Amino acid sequence: MRAPRFPFMTFLIVSAAAVGAALGSQYIGGLQPCELCLLERWPYYLAIVIAAFGFAARGHHTPRYFAMWLIVLLFAASTCLAAYHVAVEQHWIAGPTACTGGIGQASSPDQLLKMLEARQPVQCDVVQWSIFGISLAGLNLIASVLLLIYGFLMARRGDVS
Prior knowledge:
- By secondary structure, this protein is mostly helical.
- Helices cover 65% and strands 2% of the residues.
- It has one domain (6-157): DsbB-like (Bromodomain-like).
């Protein structure tokens, strides 16, 4: 028989591991995150807080059920953000102007300087690291989809008591 708080503990551990991996790759591995990478961390930060709340809410089915559906919504948003970032990396769609695109459209040195000053140091459309051809945004997309499906199944079954 499944422990009643198991789904929340799963989200807590997996989200903390994802945040730890992101921070480790940044501060230990030297990979600087782009604007979209930083944005993609927020669903995990919030999932840690909500999963901790759901885990701690002993014997109260309604708050736990609500917390599980919030986690589902978070990972739906995380899936959308990750898919957007992958599409930007693959140049299927345009990304945020501050962190993508070239600077070849400058018509004067002053305009070039302004464009360089407005540009982020890490480009969202450049893959910094990948494994088996899958970028970090791609790995986040896979993780987000799996967590979304798991959360949806747990919330739908009501397996949060």
